[in-house]
Write a structure and sequence with these properties.
By secondary structure, this protein is α/β, with parallel strands linked by helices. The protein has helices spanning 2-22, 43-59, 79-91, 102-115, and strands at 27-33, 68-74, 94-98, 118-122, 138-141, 147-148, 161-162.
Length: 166
């Protein structure tokens, strides 16, 4: 009788512990991409790759036990729609935003800086954001707009230089 009661208690303990793990808040990444106009040659594939990677991360337990959720919405490469997407994703709890569009990134940038939200600029956006002193929450990756690589270099790795518009 004691063994049966102990087995039931252990089963209940294990059963009640599972919902606690499943209730961990998801880590949300917002991808506000042009899925319908100028960037359709790449943005749907990038969005799908992000979803696939999130699925792999979630199969391995997420990020520190939190599931990863990718939020995707089309902005049609229109700045106003990009701002609307940013505001919607912010309300939904996204912690990182990627616009994959220079006009949309430039329109959203002041809001992201004011809000203190992390914004990725993958191959798009402001070249001077590479500095990090002024744009503390903006993270360019790749070669953003306005950055040129020197054609000759004495080092094995070229260094970016911001172009100035006079």
């Amino acid at each position: 009788m004691k063994i049966k009661l102990l087995s039931i208690l252990v089963g209940l303990a294990l059963f009640s512990a599972q919902p606690v793990l499943a209730q961990a808040q998801p880590v949300k990444f917002a991808l506000c991409y042009d899925l319908s106009k100028a960037y359709t040659f790449i943005s749907p594939q990038v969005a799908q790759a992000a979803r696939d990677y999130a699925q792999i991360l979630n199969q391995k337990g997420g990020i520190e036990g939190h599931p990863v959720e990718i939020l995707v919405q089309d902005h049609g490469n229109e700045p106003q729609r990009g701002i609307e997407c940013y505001e919607k994703m912010k309300r939904e709890g996204a912690i990182t935003f990627d616009m994959l569009s220079t006009p949309v990134s430039r329109a959203v940038l002041p809001r992201a800086m004011k809000d203190g939200n992390v914004m990725m600029q993958s191959f798009v956006g402001r070249g001077d954001a590479i500095d990090g002193d002024v744009f503390k929450w903006i993270f360019p990756s790749g070669r953003p707009t306005g950055v040129r690589w020197p054609t000759t270099s004495t080092t094995s790795r070229p260094r970016p230089t911001a172009t100035s518009k006079s």
